[in-house]
Every structure is written in structure tokens, then in C-alpha cells.
Design brief:
Layout lengths: L1 H26 L18 E2 L12 H14 L1 H21 L2 H15 L3 E5 L3 E6 L4 E6 L6 H15 L5 H12 L6 H7 L7 H12 L5 H24 L7 H19 L10 H9 L5 H12 L3 H29 L3 H9 L13 H15 L7 H23 L7 H36 L9 H20 L4 H20 L9 E2 L2 H13 L5 H12 L3 H11 L5 E9 L9 E9 L8 H34 L9 H16 L15 H14 L5 H12 L1
Parallel strand pairs: 1-5
Antiparallel strand pairs: 2-3, 3-4, 6-7
Helix pairs in contact: 2-3, 3-4, 3-5, 3-6, 4-5, 5-6, 5-21, 8-9, 8-11, 8-15, 9-10, 9-11, 10-11, 10-13, 12-13, 12-23, 13-22, 15-16, 16-17, 16-21, 17-18, 17-21, 17-23, 18-19, 19-20, 22-23, 25-26
């Protein structure tokens, strides 16, 4: 057996050498010679340990369905069901974007011919397996998580592109959940008690940058923010039904503490406080402004039920927070309503447009939002840059239109739409740039390229390596990245030995620890998920506190402005005596605060449209640039290789947008229906003759 393997490897080496030399001859004088690659990456040369996913760790209901499907369709097919369902659950938990979760599910379904359907609600997920033979339901609450969102997408993409097996994908999911692929600094703020440091930082910065507070409000908001974090920590630790009280008790604690500062009037600060800024800055953590935008996107995209339910659910959640804060004020103050309106006049005393520290303060606030979203520290520069571009475009356009359109909401709509478009375009450019630079690093360490790169490629690789080493020294990076850099040299040496006919090495074996690091390198080589960048940006662009202001106006109705108008009459009882009398007139809308409900719809809808327009711009610009500047496909590719690369490219582009992929449930997809029919015939699924005949007719068309 050993001699046969040696002969096989020798033959493969000769074939590879011939193809590479032929490629070199064809590429002489080409400016793109740095794209020459091995015929196979190191991943295809390594012999992995037969690690198997332990299905006994699955929930009882999913394990029961797995066993049924395994008997009928085999282990690999059944595990793919498990992988797909777990991917859906974790993606839904991490970003709650049903449209994009459905996108990756559809790609997995099409790739592996799964007989699977799903219903993705706001918090409830339903999966219909084997054409409805089995059904699973899960309740998945909000828990925004940019790191897990990106990791689970990368795992799914790696499995879609056949870079990992289903066993490796499922094991990697478990390791991700256990925090084995998260940096130490990320683990610190991922859960309590380390997460407590973020609450006061976000509350204080939001109170000033968004809600018109001053530096006194900044300090008090930090105290109320820490108190809200402690309340949540306590209730989460207790668990059970106690977690249902988080919103109301957080609101009560915020109202009590801020009202005590107002009532005590220490050093005369009571009369200077802007209570709305303190309340809204503290509760900003719990205002899911992103959900309003997602609700509008779902309504626009045809998911009417999910979009409307999401919009109403978040509105009710915000009302509970506002009501709890009002209860807190009532506990301390004799007249909460009067105090509320007295302190409103203290808001907005700082003109942010002329302050040099406006952008640094916004970046500090954005950093706290990234921490709330559990964004990887090593990538903060990406998230902050996208957030800053969106905010600055939004702020500058609003300032330019504010005076000219002060009596309508067009200034708000225009600035929000432009800010969202700018964020999408910039995030897309940044993503492509990072992926192109990272190509050289991953091509070198995963041995997808043989020989040296061009000077530009060598520069990109060296910069990537330096960045990884520096971030690890600072504690932001993952230790496994540095470990793999040391492994890469060893793997390169072993590959050269194996491909040398004169050497006795016949395989490359890894230890269990090395295999874990190697799989992580493969998954990390997948492209960056653009929505991991955009979700925190949308969170900052949409002030979810607008709906809170609406509810505060419901709890504390604004006083209506009234004025007296004199009416002069020149005829009284037929004489020429002039007389006058006055009548009171009431102005129904005294200020913009009453129109917060309309403003919320304007903000959410304009941001949703901005996102859609931004993606259309990126998509069309990408197609145009590809046609103008990109070379044609390599003539050396076979028809099947070309089709495979085209499918990968289409899947990659489709994941960024909201339109659904073509699938067998879409009756406009003749190709998908015919493929489904052929697949069923091969597997013996011809239980419905009429359906089979209909599929044949569609195939004939």
C-alpha cells in the first residue's frame, strides 16, 4: 500500500509540475503572474483525523429527527439538516435579519438538495423537514452578535464551497459557541461581569452626542448606565421568569437615580439637568432601533407579517422601558410631569456643529456600540470607519437642509437616506479591499500559490503578517493566528517532502491541536461578511429613542399652546357703537415633539430605502467594472470548473442582497424545478404521479 501511494504521489507531482510549468510559459510577460497557484491547496494534501460530531449533544427533538432521516437518507444528508438548522438558529439570534438568514438557508438547500422549508418569524422559527414529514419549532430571542454573525456565515460558506466537511463544520460551531475562536479581550466583554464596563460608557456618550445633554448629564448617565447593567446582571443570574422584568426594572432604576440627583440639587445641579438626555442615553442599550429598519425592509420585501409584528413588538418593548422610567420618577418626585417639562429646556445647550470634540465623542460612542454588538476588537477600525462615514454624511446633509426645510421632514429623510447609501457603498469598498489584501496572506499560508508574489502581493502579505503579530502582542488578536503562522512553514516543508519522488513521506499528518488551528485558518480565509460591519452602523444611524420620546409624550401629554384673539364688531343692536370681545384659540401642535411618531416612520423608512439603494448602486457598479476591467475566464478551466466557479461567485454576490435566490419553490425557476425532479427520480421519490408529470412538463418547456 505504501509503495502504491508513493507511485501515485510521484505521478501527481509530475502532472502538477507539467501544469504549473505550462501555466508559467503561458503567463510570461503577464502583469497578473502573482495569481498562479498550486493545482491543490495544502488543505487537499493534509490527512485529517477522523473526528466525528457527537450527535448525542443535540437537543432531544433535533436528535430524534436526525435519527429518522439518517435511516432513510444516510448520515451525511441527515447531518446537513442539522448543520443548516443550527446555522439558521445562530444567525437569527445574532442579527435577526430574516431576509439574509433565508438567503444562506436557500443556498445550503440548493447545494445539498435538502427537502427543507422554513418560516422565520420575529422570535419563532419553524422548520419543515422532508417535505413536511417532520417539523421543529424554536424560540430565538434578540441577542445581536457581530462576531458570531460573521463566524457562522463563514462556516456555512466554507461548507458550501466544500472547504470543510459537515463533521468539521458542526464541531467548529460547537467550538465557536464555547468561545474557542474568540480573542481573550472579546471573551471579557461577551458576557457578565466583564460586560458591565460597556453600559456606563455607552449611556454617558449617547446622552451628549445624540440627546442634547451636557457634561453634568454625561456623569449622571454613566451612573444610571452602570445601575442598569447591574440590574440586568442580577436578573439574568437569577434566571427564569425574572428575566421578563429586565425592561421595567431597568427603567425604574434609571428614573429613581436620575430623579434623586434632580431632587437633591447637589451644588445646584438639579436645575441644570436634562432628564430626557439621561433617560434616553441610559435606555439606548435597550432600544432596538435596528429592528425598526429591519421591519420596514421586510415589509418592502414582501414579508408583511414578520415586518409588522417586529415593528409593533419593538414599539411595545420601548413603551415598557418608558413606563418603568416614569414609575421611577413617581417614586421620588411629587410632580413628575412638571419636572419633565421643566428640564426639557435644559437640553441642547451645546452646539455640536462647532465643537472640535464632536467626532472623537461620536467615535467613543460608536466603540461602545461595537462592544455591545460583541464586535471583534481586532476589527474595530473597520466598524468605526463605516460608522463615521455614515454619521458624517447624515450630519452634514441635515445641517445643510435644516434651515431651508424646517417645517417638514424632508431634511431628516434626505440625510438618513444619504447616510445609509454612503455607509453601504463605503462598507462594500472596504470589504473588497480587505478581501483583496487578505488574498495574498491566505494564498501563502494555505499554499494556494506557488512561488513569490509580485512586489505588491509581497507587500500585502507582509503587512497582514505584521498586523496579526502586533494585534496579538496587544491582546486583541487570536492566539491561533500566530500559532498557524509557525505551522505554515512546517506544512510547506512537509508538502515539498511529500511531492518529492525521492522522499519517503507519503502523507501530512496533524495532531488534534494542529487540526483545530488548521480548520480555523480555513474558515477565517472566507470573505468578510459585510453585514457584520453594517448592523452596528445602522444601529447608530437610527435613533431608536424616537419611539421612546413618543411614549413619554403619551405618558406626559404636552401642554397645548393657547392664545387670545380679539374680535371687533361694528354693529350692535343697529347702532354704530363699536365693541370688541376675545376668544381663546388653542394650537393643536405646539412643537415637534408631538410629531415623533411621524418622524420615526420617516427615519426608519428613509434608512431602509437608503440601504436598498446603496446595495443596488454597489451591485450595478460591480457588474460595470467587471465588464470594463476584468479579463475573461482562464481558458484552462474545463466546463465543469467554470460552472463551479460561476456558482460560487453568484452565491457570494447573492448573500449581500435581499432578493431571494432561485429555488424549487419558485415556479419561475424552470431549471430548479427540473433539477429537483431529476434528483427525486434518482432517489426514488415518486410518490405523487401528478406532481411528477407536472415537473416533467415544466422540464419539457
Amino acid at each position: 500500500k505504501s509503495r502504491l501511494q508513493s507511485c501515485a504521489f510521484s505521478l501527481a507531482y509530475c502532472v502538477d509540475t507539467e501544469r504549473i510549468m505550462g501555466s508559467n510559459d503561458a503567463e510570461k510577460g503577464s502583469s497578473r503572474s502573482d495569481k498562479r497557484t498550486y493545482t491543490q491547496s495544502i488543505r487537499q494534501k493534509v490527512t485529517f483525523e477522523k473526528r466525528r460530531f457527537d450527535v448525542k449533544t443535540l437537543p432531544a427533538d433535533l436528535h430524534r429527527v436526525y435519527k429518522k432521516v439518517e435511516i432513510e437518507r444516510g448520515e451525511e444528508y441527515a447531518l446537513t439538516y442539522v448543520f443548516t438548522i443550527r446555522t439558521a438558529i445562530e444567525l437569527h439570534r445574532a442579527w435577526h435579519n430574516t431576509l439574509l438568514t433565508a438567503k444562506i438557508l436557500q443556498q445550503l438547500k440548493d447545494k445539498y438538495k435538502l427537502h427543507l422549508a422554513w418560516e422565520l418569524g420575529v422570535v419563532k422559527l419553524k422548520f419543515h423537514i422532508e417535505d413536511g414529514l417532520y417539523e421543529l419549532q424554536y424560540k430565538v430571542p434578540y441577542d445581536y452578535d457581530s462576531e458570531f454573525q460573521d463566524l457562522y456565515m463563514r462556516i456555512a460558506i466554507a461548507y458550501l464551497d466544500e472547504h470543510i466537511t459537515v463533521h468539521q463544520g458542526l464541531i467548529y460551531q460547537d467550538e465557536t459557541k464555547a468561545g474557542k475562536h474568540t480573542a481573550k479581550t472579546g471573551l471579557f466583554i461577551r458576557a457578565f461581569p466583564g460586560r458591565l464596563v460597556v453600559y456606563p460608557f455607552e449611556a454617558a456618550t449617547c446622552a451628549v452626542i445624540f440627546f442634547g445633554g451636557d457634561w453634568v448629564d454625561f456623569g449622571i448617565a454613566a451612573i444610571t448606565g452602570l445601575a442598569s447593567g447591574l440590574v440586568e446582571y442580577l436578573l439574568v443570574t437569577i434566571g427564569g421568569s425574572a428575566t421578563l422584568l429586565i425592561d421595567v426594572l431597568v427603567g425604574v432604576s434609571t428614573g429613581v437615580i436620575a430623579s434623586l440627583f434632580f431632587d437633591s440639587n447637589i451644588d445646584g445641579i438639579g436645575g441644570q439637568l436634562c432628564l430626557p438626555s439621561i433617560f434616553l442615553g441610559t435606555l439606548y442599550w435597550y432600544f432596538y432601533g435596528t429592528a425598526f429598519v429591519l421591519g420596514i425592509l421586510e415589509i418592502i420585501s414582501g414579508e408583511l407579517q414578520t415586518g409588522v409584528v417586529r415593528f409593533l413588538a419593538v414599539a411595545v418593548k420601548t413603551f415598557i422601558l418608558s413606563l418603568g422610567t416614569s414609575f421611577g420618577m413617581q417614586i421620588v418626585l411629587d410632580s413628575p410631569k412638571d419636572v419633565w417639562f421643566d428640564t426639557v429646556g435644559n437640553c441642547g445647550t451645546i452646539d455640536l456643529s462647532v465643537q472640535w470634540w464632536r467626532i472623537p465623542l461620536y467615535l467613543a460612542c460608536s466603540a461602545s456600540a461595537l462592544a455591545q454588538y460583541r464586535f471583534p476588537h481586532v476589527d474595530y477600525w473597520r466598524g468605526l470607519s463605516v460608522q463615521l462615514v455614515g454619521y458624517e454624511v447624515q450630519f452634514q446633509i441635515f445641517q445643510a437642509l435644516m434651515q431651508r426645510q424646517s417645517r417638514d421632514f424632508l431634511d431628516t429623510a434626505s440625510s438618513n437616506t444619504a447616510g445609509a447609501i454612503a455607509a453601504v457603498v463605503f462598507a462594500s469598498i472596504l470589504q473588497r479591499t480587505v478581501d483583496n489584501v487578505a488574498y495574498y496572506y491566505h494564498a501563502r499560508v494555505l499554499q494556494r500559490h506557488k512561488g513569490k508574489f509580485s512586489p505588491f502581493g509581497e507587500f500585502c502579505y507582509k503587512m497582514s503578517e505584521i498586523y496579526i503579530r502586533i494585534t496579538n502582542c496587544l491582546g486583541f488578536g487570536k492566539k491561533n493566528d500566530v500559532v498557524y503562522l509557525r505551522m505554515a512553514a512546517k506544512l510547506k516543508e512537509q508538502r515539498e517532502e511529500m511531492e518529492n519522488p525521492a522522499h519517503s513521506r507519503t502523507e501530512i499528518m496533524l495532531t488534534l491541536e494542529e487540526e483545530i488551528v488548521f480548520i480555523e485558518a480555513i474558515v477565517q480565509a472566507e470573505d468578510l461578511n459585510i453585514w457584520a460591519l453594517l448592523m452596528p452602523t445602522v444601529y447608530q444611524l437610527v435613533p431608536g429613542s424616537l419611539i421612546a420620546r413618543l411614549w413619554f409624550n403619551v405618558i406626559f401629554p404636552p401642554l397645548l399652546d393657547s392664545e387670545e384673539t380679539t374680535i371687533v364688531s361694528d354693529v350692535i343692536d343697529g347702532t354704530n357703537n363699536f365693541s370688541s370681545f376675545t376668544i381663546p384659540l388653542v394650537t393643536p401642535f405646539q412643537n415637534d415633539e408631538v410629531n415623533i411618531g411621524a418622524a420615526l416612520l420617516v427615519v426608519a423608512a428613509s434608512l431602509a430605502l437608503g440601504l436598498l439603494i446603496g446595495f443596488v448602486i454597489v451591485e450595478q457598479a460591480t457588474l460595470f467594472l467587471k465588464k470594463v476591467f476584468c479579463r475573461k475566464t482562464d481558458d484552462n478551466l474545463t466546463a465543469s470548473e467554470y460552472r463551479l466557479e460561476k456558482q460560487k461567485s453568484e452565491r457570494k454576490d447573492a448573500r449581500h442582497f435581499f432578493t431571494h435566490t432561485i429555488n424549487e419553490n419558485n415556479f419561475e425557476s424552470v431549471e430548479a424545478l427540473s433539477e429537483s425532479s431529476q434528483d427525486d427520480e434518482e432517489n426514488g421519490f415518486n410518490e405523487n404521479p401528478m406532481a411528477e408529470q407536472a415537473q416533467k412538463e415544466v422540464h419539457f418547456e
